[in-house]
Amino acid sequence: MFKFVALLLCCWASLSAGRLTTSGTNFYYNGQKVFLSGVNIAWNSYGYDFGNGQYAANSKATLESWLTRIDANGGNSVRMWVHVDGKNTPAFDGNGYVTGLDNTGTMISDLKSFLDFAQSKQLLVVLVLWNGAERPTDNTINLLYDESKLQTYIDNALKPMVDALGNHPALAAWEIMNEPEGLLQNNVYNGNPCYDTTPLKDTGAGFAFTNIPMQNILKFVNWQADAVKQRNSACLVTIGSWSEHAQTDTKAQSRNYYTDSCLVGAGGKAAGKLDFYQMHTYDYNGQWNSDAPFTVSASSYGLNKPLVVGEFASVCSQNSDIGNMFQYVYDNGYQGAWSWHYLEQGKCTDSQEAQNIGMTRIKDQTANGAVTFPL
Fold it and tell me: Which residue spans traverse the membrane (predicted)?
Protein backbone atom coordinates (compact mmCIF):
# COMPACT_ATOMS: atom_id res chain seq x y z
CA MET A 1 0.00 0.00 0.00
CA PHE A 2 2.81 2.39 0.90
CA LYS A 3 4.54 1.72 -2.43
CA PHE A 4 1.28 2.32 -4.29
CA VAL A 5 0.70 5.68 -2.58
CA ALA A 6 4.33 6.66 -3.15
CA LEU A 7 3.96 5.80 -6.84
CA LEU A 8 0.80 7.90 -7.11
CA LEU A 9 2.54 10.85 -5.44
CA CYS A 10 5.50 10.49 -7.78
CA CYS A 11 3.24 10.45 -10.82
CA TRP A 12 1.27 13.44 -9.54
CA ALA A 13 4.49 15.42 -8.99
CA SER A 14 5.64 14.59 -12.51
CA LEU A 15 2.32 15.63 -14.04
CA SER A 16 2.18 18.89 -12.06
CA ALA A 17 5.80 19.93 -12.53
CA GLY A 18 5.30 21.94 -15.71
CA ARG A 19 6.42 25.54 -15.81
CA LEU A 20 8.00 27.98 -18.20
CA THR A 21 11.81 28.08 -17.98
CA THR A 22 14.66 29.72 -19.86
CA SER A 23 17.99 28.50 -21.19
CA GLY A 24 20.20 30.92 -23.06
CA THR A 25 17.94 32.90 -25.36
CA ASN A 26 15.17 30.28 -25.49
CA PHE A 27 12.00 29.38 -23.58
CA TYR A 28 11.15 25.83 -22.58
CA TYR A 29 8.06 24.23 -21.10
CA ASN A 30 8.47 20.71 -19.68
CA GLY A 31 11.75 20.47 -21.56
CA GLN A 32 10.24 21.40 -24.93
CA LYS A 33 11.42 24.54 -26.70
CA VAL A 34 8.43 26.86 -27.05
CA PHE A 35 7.49 30.21 -28.56
CA LEU A 36 5.06 32.48 -26.69
CA SER A 37 2.29 33.63 -29.01
CA GLY A 38 -0.70 35.60 -27.82
CA VAL A 39 -2.11 38.95 -26.82
CA ASN A 40 -2.14 41.66 -24.24
CA ILE A 41 -5.54 41.48 -22.67
CA ALA A 42 -4.37 43.77 -20.80
CA TRP A 43 -7.41 44.67 -18.75
CA ASN A 44 -11.19 44.73 -18.90
CA SER A 45 -11.65 47.28 -16.11
CA TYR A 46 -8.46 49.35 -15.82
CA GLY A 47 -6.95 48.58 -12.40
CA TYR A 48 -10.22 47.08 -11.17
CA ASP A 49 -10.14 43.56 -12.57
CA PHE A 50 -8.91 41.91 -9.35
CA GLY A 51 -9.35 42.51 -5.63
CA ASN A 52 -12.08 44.06 -3.48
CA GLY A 53 -14.71 41.83 -5.05
CA GLN A 54 -14.21 43.38 -8.48
CA TYR A 55 -13.40 40.22 -10.44
CA ALA A 56 -16.74 38.46 -10.08
CA ALA A 57 -18.66 41.72 -10.31
CA ASN A 58 -16.92 43.32 -13.29
CA SER A 59 -14.58 41.11 -15.27
CA LYS A 60 -14.80 37.35 -14.79
CA ALA A 61 -17.32 36.58 -17.53
CA THR A 62 -15.68 38.89 -20.05
CA LEU A 63 -12.14 37.73 -19.37
CA GLU A 64 -13.09 34.07 -19.54
CA SER A 65 -14.82 34.63 -22.88
CA TRP A 66 -11.64 36.32 -24.16
CA LEU A 67 -9.41 33.49 -22.94
CA THR A 68 -11.69 31.02 -24.70
CA ARG A 69 -11.41 33.01 -27.93
CA ILE A 70 -7.63 33.34 -27.68
CA ASP A 71 -7.26 29.61 -27.18
CA ALA A 72 -9.57 28.86 -30.10
CA ASN A 73 -7.37 30.94 -32.38
CA GLY A 74 -4.10 29.29 -31.43
CA GLY A 75 -2.73 31.61 -28.77
CA ASN A 76 -0.74 30.13 -25.92
CA SER A 77 -0.14 33.13 -23.64
CA VAL A 78 -1.57 36.43 -22.43
CA ARG A 79 -0.26 39.47 -20.63
CA MET A 80 -2.63 40.60 -17.84
CA TRP A 81 -2.29 43.71 -15.67
CA VAL A 82 -2.83 43.58 -11.89
CA HIS A 83 -2.47 46.74 -9.72
CA VAL A 84 -1.91 49.09 -12.68
CA ASP A 85 -1.97 52.58 -11.08
CA GLY A 86 -2.64 51.57 -7.47
CA LYS A 87 -6.13 53.06 -7.10
CA ASN A 88 -7.88 49.77 -6.31
CA THR A 89 -5.05 47.56 -5.08
CA PRO A 90 -2.92 47.09 -3.06
CA ALA A 91 -4.43 48.37 0.21
CA PHE A 92 -2.67 51.49 1.53
CA ASP A 93 -3.13 53.08 4.95
CA GLY A 94 -3.46 56.83 5.48
CA ASN A 95 0.32 57.24 5.54
CA GLY A 96 0.98 55.39 2.29
CA TYR A 97 2.13 52.08 3.76
CA VAL A 98 0.79 48.89 2.22
CA THR A 99 -1.32 46.86 4.63
CA GLY A 100 -2.37 44.05 2.30
CA LEU A 101 -3.36 43.04 -1.20
CA ASP A 102 -6.83 44.54 -0.98
CA ASN A 103 -9.40 45.60 1.59
CA THR A 104 -11.84 42.71 1.29
CA GLY A 105 -9.55 39.73 0.84
CA THR A 106 -10.56 38.53 -2.64
CA MET A 107 -7.36 39.37 -4.50
CA ILE A 108 -5.66 35.99 -4.39
CA SER A 109 -8.84 34.02 -5.05
CA ASP A 110 -9.60 36.36 -7.98
CA LEU A 111 -6.17 35.82 -9.52
CA LYS A 112 -6.33 32.08 -8.89
CA SER A 113 -9.71 31.88 -10.61
CA PHE A 114 -8.25 33.67 -13.62
CA LEU A 115 -5.19 31.40 -13.70
CA ASP A 116 -7.29 28.28 -13.27
CA PHE A 117 -9.44 29.18 -16.26
CA ALA A 118 -6.36 30.09 -18.30
CA GLN A 119 -4.89 26.67 -17.52
CA SER A 120 -8.11 25.00 -18.67
CA LYS A 121 -7.59 26.77 -22.00
CA GLN A 122 -3.89 25.84 -22.18
CA LEU A 123 -2.83 29.48 -21.80
CA LEU A 124 0.15 30.87 -19.91
CA VAL A 125 -0.26 34.18 -18.08
CA VAL A 126 2.22 36.99 -17.44
CA LEU A 127 0.97 38.99 -14.46
CA VAL A 128 2.00 42.66 -14.80
CA LEU A 129 2.07 44.32 -11.40
CA TRP A 130 2.41 48.05 -12.18
CA ASN A 131 1.99 50.45 -15.10
CA GLY A 132 4.53 53.18 -15.81
CA ALA A 133 2.98 54.35 -19.07
CA GLU A 134 0.64 56.73 -17.23
CA ARG A 135 1.05 58.63 -13.99
CA PRO A 136 0.08 56.35 -11.08
CA THR A 137 -1.29 57.42 -7.71
CA ASP A 138 0.90 59.32 -5.27
CA ASN A 139 0.91 56.26 -3.00
CA THR A 140 2.38 54.21 -5.83
CA ILE A 141 4.94 56.87 -6.76
CA ASN A 142 6.07 56.99 -3.15
CA LEU A 143 6.99 53.31 -3.33
CA LEU A 144 9.76 54.37 -5.72
CA TYR A 145 11.18 56.87 -3.22
CA ASP A 146 10.57 55.42 0.24
CA GLU A 147 12.25 52.07 0.92
CA SER A 148 10.18 51.45 4.05
CA LYS A 149 6.94 51.83 2.07
CA LEU A 150 8.21 49.60 -0.74
CA GLN A 151 9.13 46.99 1.86
CA THR A 152 5.56 46.97 3.18
CA TYR A 153 4.31 46.27 -0.35
CA ILE A 154 6.79 43.42 -0.68
CA ASP A 155 5.98 41.92 2.73
CA ASN A 156 2.22 42.43 2.79
CA ALA A 157 1.24 42.08 -0.87
CA LEU A 158 3.87 40.70 -3.21
CA LYS A 159 5.16 37.84 -1.08
CA PRO A 160 1.65 36.56 -0.26
CA MET A 161 0.83 36.58 -4.00
CA VAL A 162 3.98 34.66 -4.88
CA ASP A 163 3.43 32.18 -2.05
CA ALA A 164 -0.13 31.51 -3.19
CA LEU A 165 0.33 31.56 -6.97
CA GLY A 166 4.01 31.02 -7.72
CA ASN A 167 3.66 27.32 -8.57
CA HIS A 168 0.51 27.64 -10.64
CA PRO A 169 0.97 25.80 -13.97
CA ALA A 170 -0.53 28.73 -15.90
CA LEU A 171 1.78 31.36 -14.41
CA ALA A 172 4.44 32.22 -16.97
CA ALA A 173 6.11 35.15 -15.22
CA TRP A 174 5.80 38.16 -12.95
CA GLU A 175 6.32 41.44 -14.77
CA ILE A 176 7.29 44.13 -12.28
CA MET A 177 6.20 47.09 -14.40
CA ASN A 178 4.88 47.96 -17.82
CA GLU A 179 6.95 50.66 -19.52
CA PRO A 180 8.78 52.05 -16.47
CA GLU A 181 10.55 54.46 -18.82
CA GLY A 182 7.34 56.49 -18.91
CA LEU A 183 8.07 57.58 -15.32
CA LEU A 184 11.68 58.42 -16.07
CA GLN A 185 13.59 61.63 -15.52
CA ASN A 186 15.05 61.79 -19.01
CA ASN A 187 18.25 63.33 -20.38
CA VAL A 188 20.03 63.61 -17.01
CA TYR A 189 23.75 62.87 -16.90
CA ASN A 190 25.13 60.54 -14.24
CA GLY A 191 28.67 59.23 -13.92
CA ASN A 192 27.25 55.74 -13.49
CA PRO A 193 26.10 54.66 -16.98
CA CYS A 194 23.29 52.60 -15.43
CA TYR A 195 21.67 55.83 -14.20
CA ASP A 196 22.71 58.16 -17.04
CA THR A 197 19.64 58.88 -19.18
CA THR A 198 21.30 61.15 -21.73
CA PRO A 199 21.35 58.27 -24.28
CA LEU A 200 17.54 58.50 -24.25
CA LYS A 201 17.44 62.17 -25.20
CA ASP A 202 14.88 62.79 -27.96
CA THR A 203 13.56 59.23 -27.77
CA GLY A 204 10.33 60.12 -25.98
CA ALA A 205 11.17 58.53 -22.63
CA GLY A 206 9.61 60.26 -19.63
CA PHE A 207 6.21 60.57 -21.27
CA ALA A 208 4.28 60.14 -17.98
CA PHE A 209 5.94 63.32 -16.62
CA THR A 210 6.83 62.07 -13.15
CA ASN A 211 10.62 62.65 -13.43
CA ILE A 212 11.71 59.68 -11.34
CA PRO A 213 15.48 59.03 -11.43
CA MET A 214 16.57 55.86 -13.20
CA GLN A 215 18.31 54.61 -10.07
CA ASN A 216 14.98 54.65 -8.20
CA ILE A 217 13.27 52.74 -10.99
CA LEU A 218 16.00 50.12 -11.07
CA LYS A 219 15.87 49.70 -7.29
CA PHE A 220 12.08 49.33 -7.48
CA VAL A 221 12.48 46.52 -10.01
CA ASN A 222 15.44 44.91 -8.22
CA TRP A 223 13.74 44.71 -4.83
CA GLN A 224 10.54 43.19 -6.18
CA ALA A 225 12.33 40.78 -8.50
CA ASP A 226 14.46 39.65 -5.57
CA ALA A 227 11.38 39.15 -3.39
CA VAL A 228 9.78 36.96 -6.06
CA LYS A 229 12.94 34.87 -6.33
CA GLN A 230 13.34 34.60 -2.57
CA ARG A 231 9.84 33.18 -2.22
CA ASN A 232 9.97 30.99 -5.33
CA SER A 233 13.26 30.76 -7.17
CA ALA A 234 11.64 29.01 -10.15
CA CYS A 235 9.40 31.98 -10.98
CA LEU A 236 10.41 34.05 -14.01
CA VAL A 237 10.62 37.85 -13.82
CA THR A 238 10.61 40.52 -16.51
CA ILE A 239 9.71 44.14 -17.27
CA GLY A 240 8.20 45.57 -20.45
CA SER A 241 10.18 48.47 -21.97
CA TRP A 242 8.39 51.02 -24.12
CA SER A 243 10.94 50.51 -26.91
CA GLU A 244 14.29 48.97 -27.75
CA HIS A 245 16.05 52.16 -26.60
CA ALA A 246 16.16 50.98 -22.96
CA GLN A 247 17.18 47.35 -23.47
CA THR A 248 20.20 47.23 -25.75
CA ASP A 249 23.76 48.53 -25.91
CA THR A 250 24.18 47.86 -29.63
CA LYS A 251 22.01 50.61 -31.15
CA ALA A 252 22.22 54.39 -31.37
CA GLN A 253 20.41 56.37 -28.65
CA SER A 254 20.08 53.20 -26.60
CA ARG A 255 21.34 51.58 -23.42
CA ASN A 256 20.45 48.37 -21.64
CA TYR A 257 19.50 49.63 -18.20
CA TYR A 258 18.18 46.25 -17.05
CA THR A 259 21.37 44.21 -17.06
CA ASP A 260 22.05 42.10 -13.98
CA SER A 261 24.78 44.50 -12.90
CA CYS A 262 22.63 47.63 -13.26
CA LEU A 263 19.73 46.14 -11.32
CA VAL A 264 21.82 44.69 -8.52
CA GLY A 265 23.96 47.81 -8.38
CA ALA A 266 20.90 50.01 -7.92
CA GLY A 267 19.07 47.92 -5.35
CA GLY A 268 21.69 45.71 -3.76
CA LYS A 269 19.52 42.57 -3.93
CA ALA A 270 21.53 39.75 -5.49
CA ALA A 271 18.58 37.77 -6.87
CA GLY A 272 16.75 40.81 -8.25
CA LYS A 273 17.39 40.20 -11.95
CA LEU A 274 15.33 39.66 -15.09
CA ASP A 275 14.94 36.25 -16.68
CA PHE A 276 13.94 37.60 -20.08
CA TYR A 277 13.71 40.90 -21.90
CA GLN A 278 10.62 42.45 -23.46
CA MET A 279 10.38 45.36 -25.93
CA HIS A 280 7.31 47.22 -27.18
CA THR A 281 7.20 48.78 -30.61
CA TYR A 282 4.89 51.05 -32.62
CA ASP A 283 5.59 53.18 -35.66
CA TYR A 284 5.86 56.98 -35.45
CA ASN A 285 4.28 59.11 -38.15
CA GLY A 286 3.83 55.94 -40.16
CA GLN A 287 7.49 54.88 -39.99
CA TRP A 288 9.43 52.37 -37.93
CA ASN A 289 12.42 53.53 -35.97
CA SER A 290 15.44 52.14 -37.84
CA ASP A 291 16.31 49.89 -34.86
CA ALA A 292 12.77 48.71 -34.08
CA PRO A 293 12.21 44.94 -33.67
CA PHE A 294 10.36 44.66 -36.99
CA THR A 295 13.41 45.98 -38.85
CA VAL A 296 16.13 43.79 -37.29
CA SER A 297 16.68 40.32 -35.87
CA ALA A 298 16.67 39.64 -32.14
CA SER A 299 20.37 38.77 -32.20
CA SER A 300 21.24 42.30 -33.33
CA TYR A 301 20.43 43.58 -29.83
CA GLY A 302 23.26 41.55 -28.33
CA LEU A 303 21.20 40.13 -25.45
CA ASN A 304 21.92 36.91 -23.58
CA LYS A 305 18.35 36.13 -22.51
CA PRO A 306 15.09 35.45 -24.37
CA LEU A 307 13.54 38.52 -25.99
CA VAL A 308 9.79 39.00 -26.46
CA VAL A 309 8.09 41.63 -28.62
CA GLY A 310 5.60 42.41 -25.90
CA GLU A 311 3.39 45.00 -27.60
CA PHE A 312 2.69 45.79 -31.25
CA ALA A 313 -0.29 46.47 -33.48
CA SER A 314 -0.74 46.32 -37.24
CA VAL A 315 -2.59 49.65 -37.20
CA CYS A 316 0.63 51.32 -35.99
CA SER A 317 3.15 49.31 -37.96
CA GLN A 318 4.11 51.03 -41.20
CA ASN A 319 1.17 49.27 -42.92
CA SER A 320 2.26 45.76 -41.97
CA ASP A 321 -0.05 42.75 -42.21
CA ILE A 322 -0.83 41.27 -38.78
CA GLY A 323 -0.13 37.71 -39.91
CA ASN A 324 3.21 38.75 -41.37
CA MET A 325 4.07 40.49 -38.09
CA PHE A 326 3.57 37.36 -36.01
CA GLN A 327 5.53 35.42 -38.63
CA TYR A 328 8.39 37.96 -38.61
CA VAL A 329 8.78 37.73 -34.85
CA TYR A 330 8.71 33.94 -35.02
CA ASP A 331 11.28 33.75 -37.84
CA ASN A 332 13.80 36.31 -36.58
CA GLY A 333 15.08 35.00 -33.27
CA TYR A 334 12.52 36.50 -30.89
CA GLN A 335 10.89 34.18 -28.39
CA GLY A 336 7.43 35.67 -28.12
CA ALA A 337 4.84 37.97 -29.69
CA TRP A 338 1.94 39.62 -27.83
CA SER A 339 -0.32 41.92 -29.84
CA TRP A 340 -2.02 45.02 -28.41
CA HIS A 341 -4.74 44.61 -27.13
CA TYR A 342 -7.85 42.51 -26.71
CA LEU A 343 -9.98 45.28 -25.22
CA GLU A 344 -9.92 46.99 -28.67
CA GLN A 345 -9.60 50.44 -27.11
CA GLY A 346 -7.23 53.27 -28.08
CA LYS A 347 -5.33 54.52 -31.11
CA CYS A 348 -2.71 51.79 -31.62
CA THR A 349 -5.02 48.87 -30.97
CA ASP A 350 -5.85 46.04 -33.34
CA SER A 351 -9.28 44.48 -33.41
CA GLN A 352 -9.77 41.09 -31.81
CA GLU A 353 -10.41 39.73 -35.29
CA ALA A 354 -7.01 40.96 -36.51
CA GLN A 355 -5.20 39.59 -33.45
CA ASN A 356 -6.92 36.24 -33.93
CA ILE A 357 -5.64 36.14 -37.51
CA GLY A 358 -2.10 36.83 -36.28
CA MET A 359 -2.16 34.04 -33.70
CA THR A 360 -3.72 31.60 -36.15
CA ARG A 361 -0.94 32.29 -38.67
CA ILE A 362 1.74 30.61 -36.54
CA LYS A 363 -0.23 28.29 -34.24
CA ASP A 364 0.97 25.03 -35.80
CA GLN A 365 4.61 25.99 -36.31
CA THR A 366 7.48 24.24 -34.54
CA ALA A 367 10.73 25.12 -36.33
CA ASN A 368 11.64 27.92 -33.90
CA GLY A 369 9.78 26.56 -30.90
CA ALA A 370 6.41 24.89 -30.48
CA VAL A 371 3.47 27.29 -30.42
CA THR A 372 0.96 24.64 -29.39
CA PHE A 373 1.90 22.69 -26.25
CA PRO A 374 0.04 21.31 -23.24
CA LEU A 375 0.15 22.84 -19.77
Answer: none
